[in-house]
Amino acid sequence: MQTTTTPNKETVRRISVLHKAKYCYLLVIPTDPLVYILSDIATSRLDQFARDLEEWSGMKFQVYNEKSAVDRVNNIKKNGEKILPIVL
């Protein structure tokens, strides 16, 4: 299954802010059905964060924070898009 759409960035931003995130990276890999998120949300809240994202967007998310696997964190930072904070 391929991801043919991307999640609404504003929805991801708003849910991130509700979970008290200060930053958020979004990574969509076209051949991967998951959407990857890196944020500074507490580890204890990551599951709820993922559920909220999935409920609002109808897509599957894999969420990480700085305490997650280093290779995953680095990949999302390198290849993802920083969507929070908003830089104009």
| Global structural class | alpha+beta
Write the CATH fold name: GMP Synthetase, Chain A, domain 3
Q: Which oligomeric state applies?
A: single chain
How does the major sheet shape up? 4 strands, mixed
CATH class: Alpha Beta
| Annotation field: number of helices | 3
User: Which consecutive residue ranges, at least 5 long each, have pLDDT under 50?
Assistant: none
Q: Your description of this structure?
A:
The chain is α+β, with helices and mostly antiparallel strands. Helix content is 36%, strand content 23%. It contains 3 helices and 4 strands, in the order αββαβαβ. A 4-stranded mixed sheet has the order 3-2-1-4, sandwiched between helices. Helix 1 (9-18) runs antiparallel to helix 2 (46-57). The radius of gyration is 12 Å and the shape is globular. The model has no long low-confidence stretch (mean pLDDT 93).
Summarize the structure.
The protein has a single domain, classed as 2-Layer Sandwich (GMP Synthetase, Chain A, domain 3). Helices cover 36% and strands 23% of the residues. The chain is globular, with a radius of gyration of 12 Å.
